[in-house]
Amino acid sequence: MAWCPFARKMELQPESDGQPAIRPTQMIFHSIAAPWSVERLYEYWQSTSLESHFGLDYAGDLGQYIGTETRADANAGANRRADGTGAVSIETASNTSASDPWTDKQVEKLIALGSWLHQRHGIPLRVCRSAADPGYGYHRLYTDWSLSGTVCPGDTRVSQFRDVVFPGIVARATGQSPLLEDPDMPLMLNESNAVDVPLRSGVWTGLAFTDAVVHAGPRRHSTLVHLLFADSTHEEARIEGRFYLTDTAGRNPSAYLTVTGQGPGGHQFQCSADVPSGRHLRFEVRATTPDGSSVQLLHRVLSGPYWAV
Q: Known InterPro entries for this protein (predicted)?
């Protein structure tokens, strides 16, 4: 289990030792709907079957109750999935209606913690694109993250998450300063995958980068895919790539125009468009050789700016 070096360790037992391990891939933000200290929240967790990994009071005091590689039960379906991945949760002090903003001290500690989780566990610097997608989010973002629906962490804090906290995490983790006053500033997509993929001649193959979903709508994007093929690729091999839209289950595909190249080495494919709400953007490739031989894809990179719409 992992313990944050700038949080007060307030280990909750028997949960800390008794609950199963997770591989943390998400951070989910909550409001507790009470103006509690981290000590009061610890007492509350002792009286319920629920708990969060972290608690944060108005003054910026951060407590940690469960190690980040152990399941904590605050996010319903995101607590621990069948593949062992799970979310790190933080409950934050608020008024009783969860309608107030995070204080400046809370914002600073949330940014610091989000950056630490990226560095410690490799949580990608993006807002989660689906309930299981690695990244950062807030409790009400996906219905799978609550048992019966929730407005947590409240409208004001959702706006803070999008406008201040998440850009601050990205800036802290990358050493850059975000221009928070610019609402048109894009987020950046930057994913890669070095797992070799053998491509059968003439067969379209969907590619995963971090996963198979490039973007989840509603979103505007300008995305570049770079593929590297082995030197052994037939010189006359036809390399085709195309972006395509599906529903959220990966069905009902609608493809964009196919771009064609030839032979080994690097090939690039670009798409600039809007992804509608309820649709996912994906990418697939096809290599066709004169002799029917397969082609080895060595590396793939996905990059480009995107905006919420």
A: Amidase/PGRP_sf, Amidase_domain
